[in-house]
Amino acid sequence: MWLAFVLSTGLAVAQQQAKGTASRTVHVYVLVTTTSGQPVTDLDVRDFSVWDNNAVEKKITSWRLIRMNSNRLPQMSLASAEPGSGQGRDVVAYELTFDGAIGTRPNEYHSLGVKIDRPKLNVLARQGYYAQP
Fold first, then answer.
1. How far apart are CA 131 and CA 133, in angstroms?
2. Range of 35's domain?
């Protein structure tokens, strides 16, 4: 009897995950500069909005301000973030984390939008991510 209960409970959890309630953690690095190219380091998590597939606003589960080498920033061009900037130097970036959807097929692409609730700031982030099943 106990074994039947344990097996049925495990099956219910597996069925819930199969119905699309599962998610995966997505990390996004965001460079924010003024119009003159100076890094902006005084933003709060409430200043950011993250959009998945241009339709669903995601809750940011964690965020932090970090210093990292520009070569580690995937799918971004620093030239558009800071005039005259080059690759291979230290930059200040925000790391945002949210729960992304699990893909329904291999290499399902999700477009990604990051917005800042302050005027006259340049925002640079990757354009999307691949959600895997």
1. 7
2. 23-131
The whole-number average pLDDT for the span 54-78 is 80
Q: What is the mean pLDDT of residues 37-41?
A: 92
Pick from 40, 44, 59: nearest CA to 100: 59
Averaged over 22-39, what is the pLDDT?
A: 89
Domain contains 39 = yes
> Cβ of 58: how many Cβ atoms within 10 Å?
20
Cβ-contact 47, 119 below 8 angstroms:
no
Whether 98 is covered by a domain: the verdict is: yes
The yes-or-no verdict on residue 28 having pLDDT over 60 is yes
Residue 75 C-alpha from the chain's centroid: 13
3 lies in some domain: no
Distance of CA 92 to the CA centre of its chain: 16
Overall number of domains in the chain: 1
Question: What pTM was computed for the model?
Answer: 0.71
Query: Is 103 contained in some domain?
Result: yes
CA distance 122 to 37: 8
Confidence tier at 82 by pLDDT (50, 70, 90): very low
Give me the amino acid identity at 40.
V
